[in-house]
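Predict structure. Chain length: 278.
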Amino acid sequence: MKVIKYLFLAGLITLVLSKCDHLTDPTEVQEIPVVEGYLYSDGTSELIQLSLMIPLSSTDTIPEPINNAEVVVSYEGQPYLFALAPGDSGLYRYSGNDLVINPGGTYELEVNYNNNQITSKTSVPPQPNRVQVSDDILYIDSDQPPFEIIRNLPEPQVTWNNPEENYHFIVVENLEENPIPIINAENAPGFNGGLFAGNLSFRTTPTNSDFYTIDLRGGFYGRHKVTVYSVNKDYVSLYEEREQDSRQLNEPPTNITNGLGIFTSFSSDSTFFWILEN
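Prediction complete.
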């Protein structure tokens, strides 16, 4: 799960910086901070990433991290000081266990850097309701030829209540230490691997539906965890921006005052299912 979060984090850096190159005088962007903050109600992670925007005139492709800021997240007037992670990372974490991310709660971010105060806030979306999967145990006849297995793969469906058509994304993870692939790619030339594509997990794009059908192609046998995340509009806007023609000169989405980027939050609920050989 941490890998998925970091992959999105890196993608956001690329998105924001590439868009801003078109919009800002290269001589004025060197000290513009880019903030990426993520709070998860399941307690898996509280991350604040700080970096500097890359000037258009620069040949650098990796943004310079900010390692000398003071980062505080506050909830109901209580401040929580985030500490810099080891190395030249620009990544700040909260090391205590008393910061609880509550659905419906509003959290404020304050970053002090170079005598400037960078701020934002996020309201944690409601927790998904009645998350369930259509089948707890799925059986696969492994004696079939590979492409017959693919043709006959079950299609488990995860559902949740969503009468207001709020946005969610779904993460599917295989939990086995040494998972066995459903399809051996060596025996199935041309097989593209589906959404799993040989990985142990995948994440969907945001959807305002109330169900998702899981594609098991490229997946593995064993126990799986399905997590449905409620997301804010700020997060959805990033995906909408990724679909924009790069030649359009629209401002990138941001909810950061005196900087660029995003400070957002997620709430979630999970369910489980098994894939077994018949």
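Summary: The first helix runs from residue 2 to 23.
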